[in-house]
Automatic annotation (TrEMBL):
This is L-ascorbate oxidase-like protein. Residues 35-148, 160-301, 385-526 form the Plastocyanin-like domain. One of its GO terms (molecular function) is oxidoreductase activity. InterPro entries: Cu-oxidase-like_N (IPR011707), Cu-oxidase_2nd (IPR001117), Cu-oxidase_C (IPR011706), Cu-oxidase_fam (IPR045087), Cupredoxin (IPR008972), CuRO_2_AO-like (IPR034271). It holds the Pfam family Cu-oxidase. Keywords: Glycoprotein, Signal. The gene is LOC110736008. It comes from the Eukaryota. Residues 1-24 form the signal peptide. The keyword Signal applies. Belongs to the multicopper oxidase family.
Length: 557
């Protein structure tokens, strides 16, 4: 008996060792990106957009687990630029995470080469620009990580794999919107919704289809909300969507008529062409708003005869529906993830919590200007990126660690007075931490944590107390990188902070992040060794106070 146990428990370890040896030969994928402005009319009026190699949205990055990705970005805009690869964990490598707290921006007229590995990940992701509110002009695109051939995937190979980027959209330029924000005002409601850069028009028979399907075949659609402000509902006329993947994890395969896709979230679904051969509309429409905005796009059967019906399926109403849908998402415990061992072999529910951090979001004005805050502090970016200040051992000149408390006052009125400062929490390497997001506002908020995926163990109405842990899902919460928090509700996530680096936590509502509702989590290297973190890349752009400082001694193996 004892022997068998040993054999079984060492099997995953052996497999890991084999894969780590193979890692030395992991293939490289090279991309050159020319980033420019262009003029397009996604809502019918010409406006400035961002093109990557002439494309809007940007090109899809089609990668496979453990590939090394090399993207040489030529910034031909008139302002600084950074891209983030949302959900890509950048293990030991926050140097490439592309947020203003981790990297100096790529100056106009220059280029920078991102180098990172999509290590031990599978699934659906996307990238976007993080500087200067540029996302309002596009610059985003899909990023998929395919499973390696030797890893079983819990569904048959689809006929094709389609990326569907949905998001709300403004007619104003990113500069005009930024000016409004800099003046301390909200940018208000968007003007429309786009699906892959197009709004679509119901009943326009000349409109070209976005996708085609062969009758009887099954397709994978990866749906991501790349918008600025709104949760969207996504649905396809006459077709069910079988959910197979959610933000990098295989799920229990339930079927849905429609999905609420909150800001920054990605779903992988299977759709079978099993209806009458004709055209069908896919619809993305705003949720939880008094106004109605939508985009449509056509799917055409290759043997199709006839246009799509103009009767679009209705979106659900209210956010309770959305909460119930969230609760139906379950991790498939027996499916393999990026490695052959089952996802469920990581028993997150049995690990003791070492620290609990509650993050309460508020909004108020400071000197007459709108600001959004976390635990009473509104984040400001610093000229010297936080990560570089820390690496050069000059953190004390740039920011203070733990300048917000773990346990803000229960009475949110006490958080009314907002102060401005860079927010940096200091987490100990490998601690298992519980983060509570508490939303006292009337709108749904969505939060992203860079560098990790986490277990969203509960979303509930009201305020959090330690007794709520009784109701956590400690078995099959889907490991993911984004979490929504409904109005007057809270959400709890659990994870091990085992990735050294400086990691951004942000509200995916870009207006709120821009006006301060974000922070950084520093997981410092305990020993400055390469086992835990890579050295700063040779080509790193330097700026602020570290520009002329001597380079720190490199990490040792
Ligand atoms: C994406 O990559 C996979 C694996 O290399 C390949 O089979 C597939 O054809 C690629 N798809 C596209 C659209 O390039
Ligand atoms: C800029 O691009 C050139 C190739 O055109 C490359 O050799 C160089 O390394 C790039 N610079 C950076 C900082 O990545
Ligand atoms: C979970 O994944 C396994 C493959 O390991 C598959 O056979 C099974 O059908 C999946 N279960 C559900 C409920 O989707
Ligand atoms: C968790 O904490 C309990 C109570 O303090 C202790 O008995 C148990 O051994 C701990 N478990 C682990 C895995 O450390």
């Amino acid at each position: 008996m004892g022997k068998i146990a040993i054999i079984f428990s060492s099997l995953p370890f052996l497999l890991c060792t084999i894969l780590m040896v193979a890692q030395a030969e992991d293939p490289y994928l090279y991309f050159d990106w020319k980033v420019t402005y262009g003029t397009l009319s996604p809502l019918g009026v010409p406006q400035q957009v961002i093109l990557i190699n002439g494309q809007f949205p940007g090109p899809n990055l089609n990668t496979t687990t453990n590939n090394n990705i090399v993207v040489n970005v030529f910034n031909q805009l008139d302002e600084p630029l950074l891209f983030t690869w949302a959900g890509i964990q950048q293990r030991k490598n926050s140097w490439q995470d592309g947020t203003p707290g981790t990297m100096c921006p790529i100056q106009p007229g220059t280029n920078y080469t991102y180098r990172f590995q999509v290590k031990d990940q599978i699934g659906s992701y996307y990238y976007y620009p993080t500087t200067g509110f540029l996302k309002a002009a596009g610059g985003y695109g899909g990023l998929r990580v395919n499973s390696r051939l030797l890893i079983p995937v819990p569904y048959a190979d689809p006929e094709d794999d389609y990326t569907v980027l949905i998001g709300d959209w403004y007619k104003q330029s990113h500069k005009a919107l930024r000016k409004t924000l800099d003046q301390g005002k909200s940018i208000g409601r968007p003007d429309g919704v786009l699906i892959n850069g197009k709004q679509g028009k119901v009943g326009d028979e000349k409109e070209e289809p976005l996708f085609t399907m062969k009758p009887g075949k099954t397709y994978k659609y990866r749906i991501c909300n790349v918008g600025l402000k709104n949760s969207l509902n996504f649905r396809i006329q006459g077709h069910k969507m079988k959910l197979v993947e959610l933000e990098g994890s295989h799920t229990v395969q339930n079927e849905y008529d429609s999905l609420d896709v909150h800001l920054g979230q990605c779903f992988g679904v299977l759709v079978t062409a099993n209806q009458d051969p004709k055209d069908y509309y896919m619809v993305a429409s705003v949720r939880f708003t008094k106004y109605h905005l939508q985009a449509t796009g056509k799917i055409r059967y290759t043997n199709g005869k006839g246009p799509a019906s103009n009767a679009l399926p209705e979106a659900p109403t209210g956010w309770v529906w959305s909460l119930n849908q969230f609760r139906s998402f379950r991790w498939n415990l027996t499916a393999s993830a990026a490695r052959p061992n089952p996802q469920g072999s990581f028993h997150y529910g049995q690990i003791n919590i070492t620290r609990t951090v509650k993050l309460v979001t508020t909004a108020n004005t400071v000197d007459g200007k709108l600001r959004y805050a976390v635990n009473g502090v509104s984040h400001i970016d610093t000229e010297t990126p936080l990560k570089l200040a820390e690496y050069y051992e000059a953190a004390d000149k740039v920011f203070k660690y733990d300048n917000i408390g773990d346990d803000p006052p229960a009475n949110v009125d006490q958080l009314d007075k907002i102060t401005l400062a860079p927010i940096v929490l200091n987490f100990k390497y490998r601690d298992f931490i519980e983060v509570i997001f508490e939303n006292h506002e009337k709108s749904v908020q969505t939060f992203h944590l860079a560098g990790y995926s986490f277990f969203p163990v509960a979303i509930e109405v009201g305020t959090w107390t330690p007794e709520k842990r009784k109701n956590y899902n400690l078995l099959d919460a889907v490991s993911k990188y984004n979490i929504q928090v409904y109005p007057k509700s809270w959400a709890a996530i659990l994870l091990t902070f085992d990735n050294v680096g400086m990691w951004n936590v942000r509200n995916e509502c870009m207006e709120r992040a821009y006006l301060g509702q974000q922070l950084y989590i520093s997981v410092p290297t305990p020993e400055r060794v390469l086992r835990d973190e890579y050295n700063i890349p040779d080509n790193a752009v330097l700026c602020g106070i570290v520009k002329d400082m001597p380079k720190p001694r490199p990490y040792t193996p």
